[in-house]
Design brief:
261 residues, alpha/beta, 8-stranded mixed beta sheet
Length: 261
């Protein structure tokens, strides 16, 4: 009986924790697609807002969970479907096809991101000057490219995202602060790409941080990465330590308020 009461109590605590998060399906203008907005009902005054861009799989439960985690941390989060049509892959071949299709239309991707950015700026819970964008894998490359374009954001953070580009930033292009977390054993983000990224950011005069985790593979923040590696023989893997350290670095990054120049 005591065990039953304990289980009921734990269930109620879990329900209470989740009840503070308001989840709302949103539609971007001009048929650009959809997203999911997460608000913390306990938030009493404006604070940081975060746009979340998914991995190449699409806007799946993992991307939504990350946005939900941000809301629990006290931020307003918007998980955007960068494919625009609700496509979610479970096989790497489909994920690659979805990603290539999206990247073949950069203007539409930029319009989709800009629509999400404007939507967030209209939220009364989002403090002016404190809008961020984060991305995982494919999404990491998306947000870094937004920074390279000079998009008006407080900061962008990339987790196991592509660091290379065909259009490197020039001096003064980047306005946002940058956080990039990568795995040293990630064959998809080889050492020369990391070196090139550091060189690019330094020459562009960007305010950036780089976290490189020794022995860590691609998708290190995703607890389902090990199952993907086993099923499809892919060089990916979850790393709890790298996940926790990079998440704390993200929160510190969001909370940090640079001194006015």
């Amino acid at each position: 009986m005591k065990r039953l009461l304990l289980l009921v109590s734990l269930f109620m605590m879990s329900q209470t924790a989740f009840s503070d998060i308001i989840e709302t399906q949103v539609t971007l203008p001009d048929d650009l697609g959809t997203g999911v907005m997460y608000l913390n009902d306990k938030q009493k005054k404006p604070g940081p807002g975060v746009i979340v861009i998914h991995e190449w799989w699409g806007l799946n439960d993992y991307a939504r969970d990350r946005a939900r985690m941000l809301a629990r941390a006290g931020y307003t989060a918007l998980a955007v479907d960068m494919y625009g049509t609700g496509k979610v892959a479970t096989h790497p071949k489909d994920a690659e096809a979805f990603m290539k299709s999206a990247m073949a239309e950069p203007e539409k991707m930029n319009a989709r991101f800009e629509a999400a950015r404007k939507m967030m700026l209209k939220q009364q819970q989002v403090e002016a000057g404190r809008l961020f964008a984060i991305g995982y894998c494919f999404g990491g490359g998306v947000v870094l490219n937004q920074a390279r374009m000079g998009t008006d954001l407080a900061g962008v953070a990339s987790f196991h995202g592509t660091l290379g580009t065909d259009t490197p930033a020039k001096q003064g292009d980047i306005k946002a602060r940058i956080l990039a977390a990568t795995g040293q054993a990630d064959p998809m983000i080889p050492a020369e790409q990391v070196t090139g990224f550091v060189k690019e950011m330094t020459e562009a005069g960007a305010d950036f941080q780089l976290l490189s985790f020794p022995g860590v593979k691609h998708s290190f923040t995703n607890p389902k990465a090990d199952a993907v590696a086993e099923r499809f023989d892919m060089p990916v893997g979850y790393d709890a330590h790298a996940d926790q350290v990079s998440w704390k670095a993200l929160v510190d990054f969001i909370e940090h308020k640079p001194h006015a120049k």
